[in-house]
Amino acid sequence: AETTEKPVFNNLNPEQFSAVQNNEGPSLIIAGPGTGKTKTLTSKIAWLVGNHKAEPEEILAITFTNKAAGELRERLEVLLKNKTKASQVTVATFHAFGLSVLKEYHTEFSRSEDFILADEGLKLEIIKSFSELKSGEAKKLSAEISEIKNGTKPETSSFTKYEKELQKLDAFDLDDLIAKPLLLFNKNEKAKAVYQKRFRYIFVDEYQDTNDAQYRLLRQLAPDPSSNLCVVGDANQSIYGFRGANAGYIQRFTDDYPGAKVFRLKQSYRCSQTILSASSDVLSQSSGFLQGLTEGVQVSVSEQPTGAAEAEFIARQIVELVGGVSFFSIDSSVTRGEKNEGISSLSDLAVLCRTRNQFEAIAKALNDHHIPYQDVGTVPFFREEPFQSFVDLLSVFLSGNFEKAAPVFNLKKRAFSKLQFEMAKEETKKLDAVSFLNYLKDSFFAGQKFDNQNWERFTGMAGNMQNWGEFLNYVKLGSGADIHRKNLEAVSLMTLHASKGLEFECVFIPGCEKGLLPYNLYKTEVDEEEEKRLLYVGMTRAKKLLYLTHARSRTLRGRKFNLPKSPFLGSIQQELIQQIKNKPHKKPEEKDNQLSLF
Ligand code: ATP
Ligand code: MG
């Protein structure tokens, strides 16, 4: 039931509570992993709304992924005990926020209200349609166009042509979601004033990963030195430098906002002291500014002969931890492993890899042991083929803009006329979302193999959306992290990048080798410090148990590598580490009801 009760904040420590009460003027919360930064940010919003200090519509909260935005809104709902109010707070990623600005001001850019979003695939098609460039060259031009939009390169004639084509298609590309609102606020004082007035309180989580364009957008929204802007971050967790993120903005915050209050949190509620110390060693920093809840057990390190053996080791550890049980059994009376540190569910476990190429070996071992897992890559399944092409077709179909869009989408003439013909049919219009998607699939993708489970998730997602536009935008702006399901009875398999902000009882990090961590197998330039921070982020996802493994040889993308142990492991104090050797094992029992969830 909806209430007007004040929310209670009795589960915050004094430092957190002090930050929660301080919302007037600029502020910066800098603190290490698991200290409750995200929790504090959420509580601040609940405090403002619950104590009637701000209307929910006056609050903008920027998160790093759509999933984080969803979780923040859910937490707000619980704190405020009011679903309506929680939903009135604007919680979005920078991109989703930019999209909402363009929805409101589309006429400024000669687009219709129903403009489409051009993702990387469509962007390349557009480039090819006017330049006759081949794939590789088109990709280069695409990257250049991004740089121009981000303000780091001057405009070229190709750029102008591209912009014209984009407008003809009634489309914006993904860079436009930040670049065009910036442009709008630069040239249209009135529009800028609307937004500055609308959002009296602005919050940004994961501020260390803000890039230049996003920073400039934020400055437009909160230009005043006394703005109620609160940013939350940890410079040690900055892992998107390769995408132009700049942790320097944390340092710069107190220059831009000289009166800013700075809050530091010391107590980590996530990691054991051992895990905090070991991960600080990787950064060659003291962990003195961070305090764990418990001492914790040693970090396990294991050397394996091959990548396959490493994967097998991980699968066996998982069986040992969670118990050699049938994972498909709904019977809760099954016996769990003994030395499992209270780990009772597969959702407590994650395997975090530096690259997606490592997933294959891990997935095989998990399958061999009948361990369900969810594959959370950096790219979600719906942005890979054949889903990608399907989404392209769906955009054309829904845009109603066939004549203009069809050639760019490379739709064959015959299929295209069939589409228009079918469109006219009365029964097509009456189909609900799920049957409509099935109908499109049967009509145009008859020969293509869609993974059944993924197809079900895809249609399920569509069924849950308010309208088609929302669905398409979700799919185009989605990241791998968005498809992660927290309470699924499955091990999470994801990249280190995708693990940001998450936590698990037990974390495995395979591939702790020079070449993977730091990663330089296919390139010569590597930012060693950023690679250390990436390992730091991965290690600090673990609450109780942490396994770091490395293999003497492994095959990646069909090539064999012999890589030495990662130099980062060498900086961890020996007494924090327990070396684990392989034990002889029984072969896993054969089962035929093998299930891979993804
Ligand atoms: P990261 O740097 O990884 O983003 P964070 O600083 O945002 O971490 P949170 O995710 O907000 O940390 O919190 C980490 C964990 O600690 C969560 O499970 C959260 O519920 C818990 N936590 C935070 N503050 C408290 C508290 N005062 N009492 C109990 N648990 C807390
Ligand atoms: Mg956080």
TrEMBL record:
GO terms for molecular function: 3'-5' DNA helicase activity; ATP binding; ATP hydrolysis activity; DNA binding. GO terms for biological process: recombinational repair. Keywords: ATP-binding, Coiled coil, DNA-binding, Helicase, Hydrolase, Isomerase, Nucleotide-binding. ATP binds at residues 31-38. Residues 266-501 form the UvrD-like helicase C-terminal domain. Its EC number is 5.6.2.4. It catalyses: ATP + H2O = ADP + phosphate + H(+); Couples ATP hydrolysis with the unwinding of duplex DNA by translocating in the 3'-5' direction. The keyword Lipid biosynthesis does not apply. Transmembrane segments: none annotated. Residues 10-272 form the UvrD-like helicase ATP-binding domain. Belongs to the helicase family. UvrD subfamily. This is DNA 3'-5' helicase. The lineage of its organism: Bacteria, Pseudomonadati, Bacteroidota, Bacteroidia, Marinilabiliales. The chain holds residues 468 to 1065 of 1065 of the full protein.
